[in-house]
Structure formats: structure tokens, C-alpha cells
From TrEMBL:
GO CC terms: plasma membrane
Transmembrane segments: 27-48, 60-78, 99-116, 128-153, 165-184, 204-226, 238-258, 270-291, 303-321, 341-362
Main location: membrane
PANTHER family linked: PTHR31686, SULFITE EFFLUX PUMP SSU1
Subcellular compartments: Cell membrane
Family under the similarity heading: Belongs to the tellurite-resistance/dicarboxylate transporter (TDT) family.
Membrane topology according to the record: Multi-pass membrane protein
Organism: Sulfobacillus acidophilus
Keywords: Cell membrane, Membrane, Transmembrane, Transmembrane helix, Transport
Protein name (Swiss-Prot/TrEMBL): C4-dicarboxylate ABC transporter
InterPro entries: SLAC1/Mae1/Ssu1/TehA (IPR004695), Sulfite_efflux_TDT (IPR051629), Voltage-dep_anion_channel_sf (IPR038665)
Length: 372
């Protein structure tokens, strides 16, 4: 638990201190590891396929990511049991609360990862895993989005240092659910038409939530960035979430249109592809903006390694998958080549972040939590 006396002192009169507490150090932010690793697994599968040695390595990686998720989820639940008041303060904090969206995001990515395990498990087991992951994801997603948004509405005015692109995690989550739902629809259409239609309609609703929250929050965030002081250097990795949200929304609208048309819920239309391309264009602009911000901060020496660096990996993975999907839909070779180039960049980022993570764990630095 956080010392109540410390919590009672105004932030501007406190000194930053480091505490080594392995249990309390594992916050919701750590689920970004599952997010980044899972995104890279899906990207490798999209680019290289699931056959041969690559397929075997993908299966190992899925198991590893699932193990990381289970451990983190177990610790996260234990913290709720041991210190519910502290967890509630974290969830309603104007900066830290948004990272709770990483839990449903991680659940969705786990479902997408497990959809790649067809060689190892039967269809019924995979269908069960994906359906459970989808149901839990939307359940936690709605719960956290309501509680966090309500907490934000009750604050007088957000401090500039609390405003970052981490606010887009909610829209990333609600836009991700349809990606898993589309896989469920394609796999289970012959099993239960009523169920997959329900999944598809719910996914469309969640896409709408994610899309409009993305528009509202992006407008607000850019306004704060333009008119307020420069955000702290440590939030730089969150700038990549603008890329991730746009890419996931692009994937979502194209996949939902295909699934809905396949079931006869809507007539085939090119509008979804047009909107997908528009969001893909926004993702490309966001990629260049995030890269510029990151390099500028990096060259000033203000960007030490933290686990938040995993936020570099997932958006790139989503963007390259989006580029690959659109290249196939449009039969555009240059777009496929662009996705191949993005895969090289994402792989370099992944290896750097993975090495940094292993070093941080070996040194114990990740268990030192900074507090005001």
C-alpha cells in the first residue's frame, strides 16, 4: 500500500523516490509486453505464413506470450485482492488509469495469437479459446472505459503532464475486438449462424465506439499538445499509439465489411475499403510523426529504456499487417513491398526492445517503481 501521509502531500511538494517492490512494480502498464509480442507474432505469421520452421517458432512464441499473460494477470488480480484501494486510485488516475485498457487489449491479442495454433489444437478448442477471449475482452473493455471516462469527467482539469497519447488505448481496445470477432465469424460461420451474426453486430458497435472515441480524443490531445508545454520525455512511446489506433481501425472496417457481406447482413460496398485506405493514410502520417518525435527526444538523451518501449512494437506490427491486407485487397504490389519494409523496421525495433527488456530484468531495474 502507498503511505497515506505521502499521498496526502501535494505533488508539487514531494520528492520522487524509488522503491523496490516486485509485486507493486507490476502494474497494468506491463501488459504492453503481451501487446507488443503478440502483435509481432501476428505480423510474422502474416508475412511468412505458418508452415515449416517458422510455423513451429510461431507456436513456441504463442505459448511464451500466453505464459507472460497468465503470470501478469495473476499478479494483477493478487494486487486487487491485497490492495484494492491502491488499485482503484491507479485506475482513476488521470495518467495511469488509461493503461488499464491494456488488459482487454492483451486478452484480444491472446485470442488472435491462439487462432494461429491450428496445427497443434483441434478446431473446437481454438473456437472455445477465441470465444472466451472475445467475451472477456468486451466485458472488461466496457467496464474500464466507463469507469475511466467517468473519473476523467470528475476531474477539474487535466494537468499537462497527465495528457498523452495513452488516452487512445481505449479506442485501440474497442477497435481490436472486431479483429478477433472477424476470425470467429470466418471460423464458426458453418457452426452457428445466429452466434456469428451476434458477434458481427456487437463488433460493429464496438468499432463505432472506438472510431468516434478516437476522433474525439485525438482532437483533444493535439489541442493540448499544441497549446500546452511539451510533454515529459518518458511518455514519448505513447505517441506511437496514434499510429496503432489508426491502423487497427483500418483493419477493423475492412474486415467487418467483408464479414457482414459474407453473412448477407449488408450488401458488398467499396466504401469500407475507401475508409480503410483513408485510415491507412492517417496511420502513415502518424508513423512519420511518431518517428520524428522519438528521434528528437532520443538525440537529446532523454529517453532511457523502460517497458513502455514495447509501445513502439505493436503499432508498427498493426500498420504492416494493415498494409499487407490492403495490398491483397487492391492487388497492389508496391503496397506489399511497403509492408515488407515495415516488417524489417518492426523487427529491428522488436529486437532492440527485447534486448532492453531482458537486460532490465537481469539487473532488477524493472522492479524499481518511481513514486511521488
Amino acid at each position: 500500500m502507498v503511505d497515506d501521509k505521502i499521498m496526502a502531500v501535494p505533488e508539487e511538494h514531494t520528492m520522487v523516490r524509488r522503491q523496490t517492490d516486485p509485486l507493486r512494480a507490476v502494474t497494468s502498464n506491463w501488459f504492453v509486453i503481451v501487446m507488443g509480442l503478440g502483435g509481432m507474432i501476428d505480423a510474422v505469421a502474416k508475412v511468412w505464413g505458418l508452415t515449416g520452421t517458422i510455423g513451429s517458432w510461431i507456436e513456441v512464441a504463442v505459448w511464451v506470450n500466453a505464459g507472460i499473460f497468465v503470470v501478469l494477470l495473476g499478479i494483477w488480480l493478487i494486487r486487487w485482492f491485497l490492495a484494492p484501494a491502491e488499485m482503484w486510485r491507479e485506475m482513476t488516475h488521470p495518467a495511469h488509469g488509461h493503461f488499464f485498457a491494456l488488459i482487454p487489449i492483451a486478452m484480444t491479442i491472446e485470442g488472435l495469437n491462439w487462432s494461429l495454433m491450428g496445427r497443434e489444437f483441434g478446431g473446437s478448442i481454438l473456437d472455445l479459446v477465441m470465444n472466451v477471449a472475445w467475451i472477456l475482452s468486451i466485458g472488461f473493455g466496457v467496464l474500464f472505459s466507463i469507469l475511466i471516462t467517468d473519473a476523467m469527467m470528475r476531474q477539474h482539469s487535466p494537468r499537462p503532464e497527465h495528457v498523452s497519447f495513452a488516452w487512445l488505448l481505449g479506442s485501440v481496445a474497442t477497435a481490436l475486438f472486431p479483429l478477433l470477432g472477424n476470425v470467429i465469424v470466418s471460423r464458426e460461420l458453418h457452426l452457428s449462424l445466429a452466434w456469428v451474426r451476434f458477434v458481427n453486430v456487437v463488433d460493429i458497435a464496438f468499432f463505432g465506439m472506438g472510431f468516434f472515441v478516437f476522433l474525439f480524443f485525438t482532437a483533444f490531445l493535439l489541442s493540448r499538445y499544441f497549446t500546452g508545454p511539451e510533454p515529459p520525455a518518458q511518455v514519448t512511446p505513447t505517441s506511437w499509439l496514434l499510429l496503432g489506433a489508426a491502423a487497427v481501425l483500418s483493419l477493423g472496417v475492412v474486415g467487418l465489411a467483408q464479414s457482414s457481406a459474407h453473412m448477407g447482413l449488408i450488401a458488398p460496398s467499396g466504401f469500407a475499403l475507401l475508409l480503410g485506405l483513408a485510415l491507412w493514410g492517417l496511420a502513415g502520417w502518424s508513423f512519420l510523426l511518431a518517428l520524428t518525435i522519438t528521434l528528437r527526444v532520443w538525440f537529446t538523451g532523454q529517453l532511457p529504456f523502460t517497458l513502455s518501449w514495447w509501445a513502439f512494437v505493436f503499432p508498427l506490427s498493426a500498420y504492416l499487417i494493415d498494409s499487407r491486407v490492403l495490398a491483397g485487397a487492391l492487388h497492389t504490389p508496391w503496397l506489399k513491398g511497403w509492408s515488407d519494409g515495415l516488417f524489417v523496421v518492426a523487427s529491428v525495433f522488436f529486437l532492440i526492445v527485447l534486448a532492453g527488456t531482458l537486460i532490465a530484468f537481469a539487473s532488477g531495474r524493472v522492479f524499481k517503481r518511481e513514486e511521488a
